[in-house]
Design goal:
Elements: H1 3-20, H2 30-41, H3 49-53, H4 55-70, H5 74-77, H6 80-87, H7 91-105, H8 117-121, H9 128-144, H10 149-160, H11 163-166
The protein binds protoporphyrin IX containing FE.
Protoporphyrin IX containing FE binds next to α6, α7, α8 and α9.
Length: about 180
């Protein structure tokens, strides 16, 4: 089963679980167990973006695909400061931190433990063009996993929230 099918199934499962809300239906996959556990622990969680996306397994799968696209993005790789910063951290660690942040930002039980967006991206001279390149990769990932339009809009708003802390907007175009 490919990943996008997995995610779509995850989303369907959430709908099913919340519709049936019968925690006794046993589906032993980690994803379903995690969703059921969360479903039974706090009722409002069935409407959180976190729950609608299918919990942390689905979010981690989306972040994994997204970061794999970023690391081969020619526009981002043309910026030596981004390249250097990315080479300074293990990819798995970056995926973990972004997944943790997305879990927290979508209403999940996670707590983000990383640095602020300003501190993290301060020395990367990120331009508007690089920002748009990153957002195009994010859009491609959301489409790959058939994330519904409503949830896409909410996820894009989360990424755009700290834009002013990430894009060095005042800098004149940089010649590499
Ligand atoms: C063009 C846009 C972006 C580029 C080029 C970029 C690049 C990077 C790089 C290279 C790192 C690893 C370097 C390090 O940890 O020192 C990083 C870390 C991180 N980025 Fe970005 N990023 C961008 C946008 C964003 C956005 C929109 C978010 C979330 C809203 C985000 C969240 C994070 C997080 C959570 C970390 C880990 C911070 C930590 O470990 O303390 N980034 N980014």
């Amino acid at each position: 089963m490919n990943l996008s099918k997995g995610i779509t199934l995850g989303l369907l499962l959430v709908v099913l679980v919340s519709a049936c809300s019968d925690s006794s239906t046993s589906d032993s996959t980690p994803l379903a167990q995690e969703e059921q556990t969360q479903e039974t622990t706090s009722t409002q969680d069935t409407t959180s973006l976190y729950a609608r996306l299918g919990g942390i397994y689905s979010i981690a799968t989306v972040v994994d695909d997204f970061i794999e696209r970023l690391v081969v993005n020619d526009i981002l790789n043309a910026n030596p400061a981004i390249d250097e910063a990315r080479a300074s951290v293990p990819k798995a660690g970056l995926k973990y931190r972004v997944t943790e942040m997305m879990g927290w930002a979508t209403g999940g039980p996670q707590t983000y433990t990383g640095r602020s967006m300003e501190e993290t991206h301060a020395d990367m001279n990120i331009t508007e063009q690089e920002w748009q390149a990153m957002m195009s990769d994010f859009q491609a990932t959301l489409d790959q996993f058939n994330v519904p339009a409503q949830e896409q809009g909410e996820l894009i708003a989360i990424l755009e929230g700290p834009k002013a802390d990430i894009v060095a907007a005042t800098m004149s175009p940089i010649e590499y």
